[in-house]
């Protein structure tokens, strides 16, 4: 296996440090042989591929993430029908969503090292194919145990596009372009679960029944598998270089080095928790991101209480308010894309005015103002949503609140993700692994207590509790915006 640090030392224009954990490998001197990927115009460099081709690859990553995110929550649409069929309470059926998200946390430590060994294409293909297979027992299971196990396995395999898309985008886009692509993909990751109940409720209410929510996931997964098979090329530079070495004997790179499994254990299983115990930036950003991710999944239990139990809407219509939050998510995505374009233009202008010719490296904290805005929008939306929830108040108030929640949630989530990637670029796999594990457990746990909280406190006060916690977290991006450089300078795990 060609180690990442050797690739970077030879081809700095190709590999972004955002996908590297190379510090676990002892570097050796690079080969003196010329590497064509040094050439900024080398057609083998995925960043030099045509815009159309890179957009199509990004579309494939979007499709994979859409399949996974829709499937994560579509199961909640049939909760009442499933509980009646198997004679269990709705809280037990909620495990179908929670176990799927638990699979989200178990999968990345598996898919990330596989990606470093075999690239992006084949792990993505294997993940989507296995996801499609595991959707079948969910659709045909004769007992709840089979269905719940199938949901867990679907989450573990379906997380592959979510675990790999960051590296896939790093492979083909430059940093500022990457921010736009990432905002789009994460918008799908967050918007997909909100679209799923709308689809699922109408399917469940029709003659098809709740089992067709499983079949829909299976069909989507199968279609994406075909798309990956025919449309996704390999974009990971070490794999490209290995292939080139096999085809061209004159082309040599540094000697191959076998990576021992204990190093994988250290990078993907041990170091994430070490970082969580020693890095205040990662800890607070991860907790904030995990909290807003939990809010996303708590709505799948709270909306049926609000719109079906209290307002007595029919099954299909009761899911339409999810669209309000989804529109808010897309508004947040538009905010990030707009600000990124403006920042990119300002950076290019500054470079043009700089006569030194030295490339300027923007600080990671440049991203945080938008997170500050999101941290204010989120509690405002939660308070509006909660205190306009009474059945005698027009539903438009709750829709407006959900717009604020969706846009604030997206701004916080995307900005925190890109900030973590910027700060922990050389240990990004470990940092994102820790982040994924924590936020997935939050997302799995929140739906389990949502019913008790909303029934016990009422919609207004339950939403307010979430709003008060959101207010308490507002200082996090402000602190890092002001003191982030000093905190990074004190870290032993960062290259500052």
Automatic annotation (TrEMBL):
<feature type="region of interest" description="Disordered">
    <location>
        <begin position="1"/>
        <end position="42"/>
    </location>
</feature>
<feature type="transmembrane region" description="Helical">
    <location>
        <begin position="320"/>
        <end position="342"/>
    </location>
</feature>
<feature type="transmembrane region" description="Helical">
    <location>
        <begin position="460"/>
        <end position="481"/>
    </location>
</feature>
<feature type="domain" description="Major facilitator superfamily (MFS) profile">
    <location>
        <begin position="57"/>
        <end position="488"/>
    </location>
</feature>
<protein>
    <recommendedName>
        <fullName>Major facilitator superfamily (MFS) profile domain-containing protein</fullName>
    </recommendedName>
</protein>
<feature type="transmembrane region" description="Helical">
    <location>
        <begin position="179"/>
        <end position="200"/>
    </location>
</feature>
<feature type="transmembrane region" description="Helical">
    <location>
        <begin position="55"/>
        <end position="76"/>
    </location>
</feature>
<keyword id="KW-0325">Glycoprotein</keyword>
<feature type="transmembrane region" description="Helical">
    <location>
        <begin position="269"/>
        <end position="300"/>
    </location>
</feature>
<feature type="transmembrane region" description="Helical">
    <location>
        <begin position="122"/>
        <end position="140"/>
    </location>
</feature>
<keyword id="KW-0812">Transmembrane</keyword>
<keyword id="KW-0472">Membrane</keyword>
<dbReference type="GO" id="GO:0005886">
    <property type="term" value="C:plasma membrane"/>
</dbReference>
<dbReference type="InterPro" id="IPR036259">
    <property type="entry name" value="MFS_trans_sf"/>
</dbReference>
<dbReference type="Pfam" id="PF07690">
    <property type="entry name" value="MFS_1"/>
</dbReference>
<feature type="transmembrane region" description="Helical">
    <location>
        <begin position="368"/>
        <end position="387"/>
    </location>
</feature>
<dbReference type="InterPro" id="IPR011701">
    <property type="entry name" value="MFS"/>
</dbReference>
<dbReference type="InterPro" id="IPR020846">
    <property type="entry name" value="MFS_dom"/>
</dbReference>
<feature type="transmembrane region" description="Helical">
    <location>
        <begin position="393"/>
        <end position="420"/>
    </location>
</feature>
<feature type="transmembrane region" description="Helical">
    <location>
        <begin position="146"/>
        <end position="167"/>
    </location>
</feature>
<keyword id="KW-1133">Transmembrane helix</keyword>
<dbReference type="GO" id="GO:0022857">
    <property type="term" value="F:transmembrane transporter activity"/>
</dbReference>
<feature type="transmembrane region" description="Helical">
    <location>
        <begin position="212"/>
        <end position="232"/>
    </location>
</feature>
<feature type="transmembrane region" description="Helical">
    <location>
        <begin position="88"/>
        <end position="110"/>
    </location>
</feature>
<feature type="compositionally biased region" description="Polar residues">
    <location>
        <begin position="10"/>
        <end position="26"/>
    </location>
</feature>
